[in-house]
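Ticket #371: bound-state structure for iron/sulfur cluster.
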Amino acid sequence: MNSPVAIYVHVPFCPSKCGYCDFNSYALAGDIVGRTVEAMLAEIRRSPWRGRPAKTIFFGGGTPTFLDADCLTALLDAVVEAHPPIEGAEITSEANPGTVDQEKFRAMTRAGFNRISLGAQSFVPEDLLRLGRVHGAADVGHAVRAAREAGFANLNLDLMFGLPGQSSRAWRQNLDLALSLKPEHLSLYCLTIEPDTRFARLDRRGMLDLPDEDAQVEFYDLAVACTGNAGYEAYEISNFAKPGYECRHNLCYWRGEEYLAYGPGAVGCFAEPAGLRTRYTNQKHPERYCEAIESAGDLWCASESLDEGVLRTERIMLGLRLREGIDHLPSLDPHALASLRSRGWLEPEGARLRLTPAGRHFCTEVAAALI
Ligand code: SF4
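RESOLUTION: The complex was predicted; output attached.
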């Protein structure tokens, strides 16, 4: 099969570990960084999927911009050689505002990146300190201006709400500041406390003053209202875009399409000839990953076959997050559908079903009822 596919590249390094983070990221430096980049180049060059065109390329992490411009360029060159991008392909890199400058952004646009996603998280210095971010509040504006001057015409800002001690007024100010920077796209996620993080330990000791559920609902509604007034569409529960600037890479995930992935801990999902899918996870720790590549050993630490039942479940769970919703499948329970519609959580849209604005607060419950 040679159809265009989404390509993900995982860079597992960060300058330090944020208190809430459970991503596959490591605050490592020294030889392991260059060794990992070499191993990633080898993985891409030996890929069994070489030749499949890229419809999107996404460098995530970790912090891709922890790497210097030469490493980022070499990695993107290798991906482009293995997966020639289709005309107009979206090529994104995540970036931490504390790890970029105009020179690096210029090198990235020269290399072919055409979309940048900045992890701003908050404009309040105390929030950033508490979260363990390495950048200051002013760095976000500097990074946006540097990215624009380097030629990035498609820019996302990530912000989090529901932060410890956050008031509705503070969240509103964060939204206003983000909107004043005129990004084409905003990702606005509620802070979740993941097990085995510093925040989980603080929370267990009662040391995180987290906003309650009602406040989280209020913050979310505020985000929808402010972004809507500013001309953004809530095309996914947590993602807001100016028309035409929806993240095409993430849409591939939410629509249940294939994606190929490279790098430590990267997760890919490809179609098998019988119509099923295989999902795989690369060795997570950079050391294990390098050893596997260098010894031509087993690169995957996990893999699973996804049968039709699992694929259906995932299509419902992820598709409901999208404004476009899901196909009105004949297998959906008519009693569950009637109940969800009578509660005002679900509505038909042509041949599709989607959450109502009220239903967006109950996405998990709706998905569970339909599954
Ligand atoms: S920058 Fe992102 S990936 Fe790195 S530790 Fe912080 S939240 Fe995790």
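RESOLUTION NOTES: Residues 213-229 form the longest helix (17 residues).
TICKET STATUS: resolved
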